[in-house]
Every structure is written in structure tokens, then in C-alpha cells.
Amino acid sequence: MTIQPRPADKATPYWWEAAPVGGVPGQPLAPRVDVAIVGAGYAGLSAALTLVRAGRSVAVFDAMNPGEGASSRNGGITSGSIRPGLAALTRKFGEKTAFEIESEGKRAREFLYDFLKTEEISCDFQLTGAFRAALGYQQYDEMARAAEGLAKRLGIDAYAVPHAEQRGYIGTDFYRGGVVRMDIGGLHPAKFHAELLRVALAAGVMVHCHTPVTAITRDAAGFDVTSSAGKTTAQQVLVCTNGYTDAAAPYLRRRLVPVRSRIIVTEELSPDLMAKLMPRRMMMGENRQLGFYYRPTPDGKRILLGGRDSSWVGDPAAPTLRLRAGLAELFPELSDVRLAHSWFGNVAMNRDMLPRLFERDGVVYASGFCGSGVVWATWVGSRAAHRLLGDTVEGRTAFDFRPPAAVPFYNGTPWFMPAFIKFYGLQDRFALWRAQR
């Protein structure tokens, strides 16, 4: 009889062991505020902190505990990546805008790193660098040229690693080389959110958890924001719900598709094995449509691996087993390893796969981080705050353009995602088959 691999020991995020999410002390709902923000994740709290320090009164509403969504569930990689490549961006937006989008990633990462240092945020941040792997030699050549171009255009320390030198970066023979970027690192995402929440509360931000917003209506005096705690009037409203957008923001909901991203974490591994598999403790990724992202945990004792989850209801075992199989394919030494945690969270995708800062009927939206929210949510949230303050210099961003296009026949339920994931999986298998390996 074949023994099926068992699921993980826990279905909760590994990050919650050291930084459990929870509520905040209750505060009375103010009848009037300058700004109401929907969503108490990275984007909402970053915006709130900027606004309060500028003298505005701010109330932040969250349907769950602050940070219980993607902010405490993600992989903690400070990639700030953009899904479309430079060539695709150039074809769609022109050379000038494409370069602005690409260069904004550098600015956003530098902003985050400076924020962590200035605010004395304790979140296990390490600027380790990131290795992105190539499936075949042709892909490696393309990636190597792209890394060279990135270094020339933006001065980023980026370089190619040929297959012969690969094991100095990652302990597997599955890939055919890759590229390194030294401006990317890793942090503990739940600790980062907890620290951001601490700083925001100390600055005077009013945070209302387990207080879903049910309606936002505009009138001559501003906006009426109706929540489970009652009604408050706000001069301005900012929506930062991203992958957890609900019926309170119907315009945004038709434009963002919540996609599950699942992560597994191994049991503790021996120091020798960790040194063999991840000798430089870098963040890791690969060039597939459904590519894995992975990294050592901040203490260097476990491996975390994540990828897309084809399910959209319940918590089935199949996505965990798929990630487990992927882990074993990369690292055969881990075929029988015990999984300590497996969990999922929603990332928000849109049709052109770009973050957004836009306004509709007076409401400002900061959303669409497409799986790179550690950098983009913090950055775009802060840009949104400066926009609300009327600061056209600090509020400037390359992502301040038209709203994402609506998804046809979509009303918030991603019923079509299993089919899309299957299609992308077939593309990946075909790409691997035809790769020059």
C-alpha cells in the first residue's frame, strides 16, 4: 500500500508563532475624521502614519484583525517585482513610462529600507540578495542580458550566475544558472506589520478592527462611511483592501481578482543541510508562470516555499502536496521532510498586472500589488497619503494612471481561477520540455 505524504502539522502561518495577529484596544468611533482608510495592512497603515504626522485625523477600518490578511501571511521577500518585463511595458506604455515603472522599484525598496532603519522597526530584515533561476540555457542567456541592462540603467548590483557556479548559490542541479540582484532581501512579515501598527498607534492613528465597512457614500460635506460600529463622516476616503476587497468597494472588486498564494515551511533542518541547500541564505525565485518562491526562515533553520494555489474555497490538501512535490523536485534531500506549516493568503491580480494609485468618484484607491506587497503596499500607501495631502511631488508615482480594466463576467468570486492555474501549469510543463537543458 502506498503511503500518501501527510499534510503539514499546522494550517496557520509560521510567522504567527513569533508575531501572532490580534486585535487592538477598542476606541470609540469618531463622528468626524479628516480621512477614513479601509484596510489596516501595510498600505493602509503606511498611509495613515504619513497623514497623522501631517496633522490629519485618521480612522482605519479592518474587517479582521489588523494585518490578518496578506500582510502577515506573505513570504517576506522585498522584491518589488513587476510582472511584465521592460519590453512588454515599453510596447504598452512607451519607453519613458516603462523606464519610470522599472526605476520606481529601486526607489520603493530604498524607501522601505530607510523606513525600517529610521523607525527602528524590528522585523529580522536582512539584505541577503536574491537569486532567480533559469529553466534552460536559452532562458539563462535572456536573463543574463536583462541583468546586465538593469545594472547599466539603474546601477543595481545585478549579475549572471552560470550553471557551473550555481551550487555556490543554491544546492540543486534542477536549474541551468540564474541571475542575482543584491538590492533584495528578506524580513519577517508579521513582525513588520506588528511594528508598523505599533508606530501608527503611537502616532495617533485610530484603528478599528473587526469593523467591516458596509458602504461609502458621497455628499456635499465629504463622505459617509458606514461600518458595523456605526457611521462616521470623512473629508477623504482611501481604500487599501487589495486581495481582500469586498462589496463595500464594488468598483474595485470588479477589477481585482483574489488569487490564493500558499506557503509551506519545513521542520528544522540541520545546519549542514541548510548550508548545502542555501549556502548564501538568499531569497529565491524562478522563471515559470507558476514559479515557486522560496527562502530560508530568518533564523536560518528552515526552508519556506510558496506558489499559487488552485483552490478558492475551503482548505484542501492537494495544494500543500503540490508544493511538497515541488520542494522535493528541487531538493531531493527533502523528499521525506516533515512540514511544520501550510497556509494561504490572497494576493490581488489585475488584467495588466501592475500596482495602482487612482481616484474614482472622489475615493482614492491603492491596490493591485500582484504578489509583491511588502514593497509596493508600503510605497503606494505612502504615495496615496501624500496625494491626499495635496503634495504633488512626494505623491508622484508611475502607477498613478487609469484604473485597472474590469474583468468580464466577474463579481468578486474567482470561480475561473482553477482553470487558469491548470492552463498556466500546462504552459510551464511545455516550457520545461522545450527548454534547452
Automatic annotation (TrEMBL):
Give UniProt keywords alphabetically: Oxidoreductase
Keyword hit for Transcription regulation: no
Could you cite one Gene Ontology molecular function of this protein? oxidoreductase activity
Q: Which GO terms describe its cellular component?
A: cytoplasm
Q: Which domain of life is it from?
A: Bacteria
SUPFAM superfamilies attached to this UniProt entry: FAD/NAD(P)-binding domain
Q: Which InterPro entries match?
A: FAD-dep_OxRdtase (IPR006076), FAD/NAD-bd_sf (IPR036188)
Residue ranges occupied by any FAD dependent oxidoreductase domain in the UniProt entry:
34-386
Q: Can the keyword Amino-acid biosynthesis be found in this entry's annotation?
A: no
Record-given protein name: Glycine/D-amino acid oxidase
